[in-house]
Amino acid sequence: MKLPPLSLYIHVPWCVRKCPYCDFNSHKAEEHIPETEYVQALLDDLEADLPWVQGREIQTIFIGGGTPSLLSVEAYKNLLAGLQEKVTFVKDIEITMEANPGTFEAVKFSGYRKLGINRLSIGVQSFADHQLKHLGRIHDGQQAVAAIKMAKEAGFDNFNIDLMHGLPDQSQAQALADIQQAIDLGPTHMSWYQLTIEPNTEFFKRPPILPEDETLWDIQEAGQALLAKHGFVQYEVSAYAQQDRQATHNLNYWQFGDYLGIGAGAHGKVTDLINAPESLTASPVFRTWKTRAPKDFLNAAGNSSKSFLAGKESIQNEDIGLEFLMNALRLQQGFDLNLFEQRTGYPLSTIASGIDTAIEKGLLEKHLLKDGHEQIKTSAKGSLFLNEILALFM
């Protein structure tokens, strides 16, 4: 088994305030964010994870949250310098930062760009003020437009706009107006996804009234057509990109690559060949997760009796096929069958029966590529019934 590519996810847990739909590990920031201490804790966390690097270079970095753009340029200068003392970046590394329009400052974002952060994911969600109020966002539509223009002026020529649809009482015309407004601002990538009500959120406790299923379907079809008209090719369930502008970091997730997760509550996926058993009695692929509460994460720094690592578990043999397919089948192009063996260490026979059944049901398709490899992808029908496909591998 070959080691897969390696990425790095960095979690910054603080927000100006918690949005009612958000189920991520985010916490309302106090007046003072302990950014110096947190940067050092991140570097200590990475130090503990270094045995999992196993000689690989870091292909991509994604700084998520929370609201990472709450931290200063100096904090990221120290963080990126510290990271490069511990790991090697590929020459053309993609470094993405999530940013919320309400935290944009021209000088700060120009500073981020000069440090080598070369991609932004801007959490707009909607340009309609009444919808932003529903969603608990701290910005309005004008601020969202101004923030994107500011990012471009700071030198960011590769950026994603996050948009939601299926918002409270949203019509098809309103959803399409959001997409058109975003397109007019010139992003290279769009994340366009339906609002879902997640457990442990304010919306779960007090659900808003959302559009009917028929309206949601009409919005989905019309929105995809509008994006395609303007050159945004759908390459994943909710990701659309201009030519050659797919998110490399997210592609690594979906192709079952490895990623280290550092920071409060960060999750990772690692392949540990050094300690792997000689026979596949247990999978060498692990999920990891870090101490969730920012206070506890900070307390673990420099404390030999505490650990940043809150948990680590092997993906069980019987689950490896399902885990791989949960990611790979999100991609519109599907996956090369050889990738399964490369990324899991298991033979194709592990998933062959389920794939054959899904093909018989018209849910998956098999295509022969020019290089002679076989590609598996969802059919038009299968893309609507992904859970039914995955159930065949449980």
Précis, in short:
The protein is an alpha/beta fold and 394 residues long.
Provide a descriptive summary of the structure in words.
With 394 residues, the protein is an alpha/beta fold. It folds into 2 domains: 6-252, Alpha-Beta Barrel (TIM Barrel); 319-391, Winged helix-like DNA-binding domain superfamily/Winged helix DNA-binding domain (Arc Repressor Mutant, subunit A, Orthogonal Bundle), CATH 1.10.10.10. Helices cover 36% and strands 23% of the residues. It has helices spanning 35-49, 73-86, 106-115, 129-134, 141-153, 172-184, 202-205, 213-229, 248-254, 294-300, 320-328, 337-344, 349-360, 386-391; strands at 6-12, 14-15, 27-28, 58-65, 89-99, 119-125, 159-165, 189-194, 233-236, 239-241, 258-262, 267-271, 285-290, 309-314, 335-336, 364-368, 374-378. Strands 9-10-8-7-6-5-4-1-11 form a 9-stranded mixed beta sheet, with helices on both faces. β5, α3 (106-115) and β6 (119-125) form a beta-alpha-beta unit. α2 runs parallel beside α3 and α6 (172-184) packs parallel to α8 (213-229). The mean pLDDT is 94.
Structural class: alpha/beta
Query: Which topology of the largest domain does CATH recognise?
Result: TIM Barrel
Strand content: 15-25%
Termini, distance in Å? 24 Å
CATH domain class name of the largest domain:
Alpha Beta
